[in-house]
Amino acid sequence: MVAVVLALTYPNLPSLDILTDYQPKIPLRVYSADDHLIGEFGEERRAFVHIGDIPEVMKQAILAAEDDRFYQHGGIDATGVLRAIIQNILGGAKKQGASTITQQVARNFYLSPEKTYLRKIYEALLAFKIEANLSKDQIFELYINQIFLGHRAYGFAAASQIYYGKPLKEITTAEAAMLAGLPKAPSAFNPIVNPQRARLRQQYVLRRMRELGFITDQQHKEALDQTLVIKREPSGFSMHAEYVAEMARQMVVEQFPDGVYQHGLKVYTTIRKEDQDAAYDSLRKGVLDYDRRHGYRGAEAYVDLSEIKSDQDETLDELLQDFEDSPDLHPAIVLEASTKQIRAYRHGGEIVTLAGNELRPALRMLDSKAPANKRLRRGAVIRLQSDSKNKWRITQMPDVEAAFIAADPQTGAIRALVGGFDFNRNKFNHATQAWRQPGSSFKPFIYSGSLEKGFTAASVIDDSPISIPASVTGSQAWEPKNYDGRYDGPMRMRTALARSKNMVSIRLLQASGVNFIQDYVTRFGFESSKHPPYLTMALGAGSVTPWQMVTAYSVFANGGHRIQPYIVSEIRDARDQVIAQARPVKAADAPLVIDPRNAYIMDSMMRDVTIYGTAGRAAATLKRRDLAGKTGTTNDHVDAWFCGYQRTIVGCSWIGFDQPKNMGRGETGGTTALPIWIGYMKTALKNVPQTFLPQPPGLVSVETPWSSREIFYKENVPDLTPPEPEPDSPVEEDTQNDPIYDHLQQFH
C-alpha cells in the first residue's frame, strides 16, 4: 500500500524550477561613495553568497549543528531518523526531529512549518527529488542563502552583518558556531534577545565541531574563550547614516516604484564614511555636552520588579526589550539605589555598579525629596554610557535635537548629513525638513547685498540704539538690542560682522532697502516668501533649513556660483548596470549669482569672524586662518547655528528643540553649535593645506588710517576716516534677543 501511495505521489510533486532558477528577493541597498552599506530596505534582509565564497568554518558549523552526514545520505538520514524515533519513544512525545538540510530546503521552499506525519512524508519525497536533480553543493548553497535566522535576516551572510556587523568571510569559529545554532529556533537562540540560551547553543555546536574533527581541542578552547561582540541594534551597517539612507530610499521609490524592495537595486550616495562618522560623532558629543550642562532629569521610565527574585532572572532582559539601545546610551534597570551606590542590570546579565563621582550627576534624583515620577529607585530605567576609560557613567536620552550637513562647494556633493540625534527615536530629518530662524547666521547675506548698494567693508555704521515707534510698526514700538546690551557707536562693517552687531545690521538693511534684500537673498537659494520684507530680517527672523544654509554659504566658498547640492550619485540594478546617474554642474559652470568681488570681500570679512569674532574658537582650535563663517542665535536662545567653510568643504550645524523653547542663558551659536562644526572639520580638513580664494580682477587693496589694508571695488574706494579701536580677543556672540512682530512694516 505504501509503495502504491509513493508511486502515485512522486510524479505529482511540484516542479523544481524555483530551486534550479533560484531568484531570491534581494532588498534595496544604499551605499556610501566609498562602498560601505548604510541602508537596506525590504521584507527580507538577504545577501546572496555562492558556495565557493562561504568560509569553511561556517559550512562546518552548520553541518555540525544541523546535518553532519549531509554529504553521505541521499536526502533522508536513516541513522538520524532511528535516533530520533528512539528519543521520541523514550520521551513519550515528538521531542526530536531528524530533518536533513535537504528536507529543510524542501520545507522552506514548498511546505508549511506544521508538524504532521503526512507533511513529513511529503517532505521526504521532495527531498529525494531534490537530491536526484541537484548537486550537494547546490542544495547546501540554497540552504545557506534561504534559511531564516531572526531579525528579518535570511541566509548566513545577512545574519553575519546583522549580528556582528561584518561580512561572512571575516567570521571566526566562535561566531560561526553562534550563527549555526540559530536555524533550530531563531527566537529562542537569538544572541540579542536571549544571550544566555544562545551561548548554550553555541557551546553545543562547538562541542559537535570538535567531536567531528572540524576543530582541534585548542581551537575549541579558544572559541569558548572568545568574547562575542553582538550588535544590540542589529542593523548590520558599519556607519550611522540612517537619514541619508531614508532620503535615498524616497528618491528611488519615486523614480522606480514597482518592485523596488525585491529586485536588488543598489543606490550609491555621495557621503564618505570618514566624513559621516566625524559628523555623527561630533553632533552626538555636542548634544550630550549641552544636555549635561543642564542637569540630570531622572528616571526614563519604571518597570515592575515585584516578581523578580534574582539579579540574573531572564525576565529582566525581556523587560529591557521595550527600551531600544541608542549608540553609547544603553538602557539599564536599577536593582538597588541609594545615595552611596546604584546597582543596575544591563542586557545579557551584566550588573553595573555606580558609586562616588559616577553618581554625582544623579544625586539630586536619589534624594527622597526628588519628584516621585523621576526619583531613582528599584525598577527605574536609566541610561549608561562608557567613558574613555571604559567606565560606566549615568546619563540620559537628550531632549534637544540637532542637525549637521556638509557639502563640496565646487560640485554640490553632500559629504556628510546627520538629520537628528537618533533616527530610531525621531525620524524627522532636521537637516532638510526643519524650518528654523537663522538668527545672526543670516547676516552675511544682508552684508553681501549692502556691498551691491555701494557699502564697503570699511564703511562706518553707527552701533547705537534704535527705536521704531508704534506708528511705524502698526503694532507695538520696537526697540531691538545688542546681545550684551552694549553699544559702541560708529564702527566699520568688517568689525560689526565679526562682533555680530544687531544695530549695524538693521541700519544696513534699512539703507539698502528691505525689498531689495528680500529679492537679493533668493540668489543664494532662499525663498523670498520665507523672509518677509521687514527690518527684523536683519536679525534672521525668517525661516531656513540647514540644507538651504549649506547651499547659500557655498556661494561664498566657491567665489559666487550657486551649486545644487545632491546626495545620490547613481543607481544600479542587480546586474550592477547603471540605470540612473546624477549629472552635477560644477561651480565653474554653474550660474554666477553674485559678483566674484563681492564673494571675495565677504570671505575676507567672515574669516575675521573665525579669528577674532564670535567664532574665534574655530581658528584657535583648528589652527587655521582659511576658515570663514558666522554664528547665529535667535530670540530667547531658541536656535543656535554655525555655518562656515574652508574652500573645499562647507558645513552647517544647528541645535534646538523640536517644540521651540529657550535652550538656556549662554547657549549661543558660538557655545552650542560651533563645537559640532569644529569637531567635524578636525577630520574633514586634517590633510587639507590652507588655501584662500584667489583675488578676482576689479579689486584694489588700500592702506587705511587704522594701520591695515582694506579691499574695495576699484570704482568704489571711499574717503576713509579712523574707526574705533579693534577688539583684540574673541567676544561673546550677539543675538537677536528681540520680540518679532508679524505686522512690523517696512520703513525707509
TrEMBL record:
Transmembrane segments: none annotated. It is found in: Cell inner membrane. Pfam families: PCB_OB (PF17092), Transgly (PF00912), Transpeptidase (PF00905). Residues 403-646 form the Penicillin-binding protein transpeptidase domain. Pathway: Cell wall biogenesis; peptidoglycan biosynthesis. Keywords: Antibiotic resistance, Carboxypeptidase, Cell inner membrane, Cell membrane, Cell shape, Cell wall biogenesis/degradation, Glycosyltransferase, Hydrolase, Membrane, Multifunctional enzyme, Peptidoglycan synthesis, Protease, Signal-anchor, Transferase, Transmembrane, Transmembrane helix. This is Penicillin-binding protein 1A. It comes from Dentiradicibacter hellwigii.
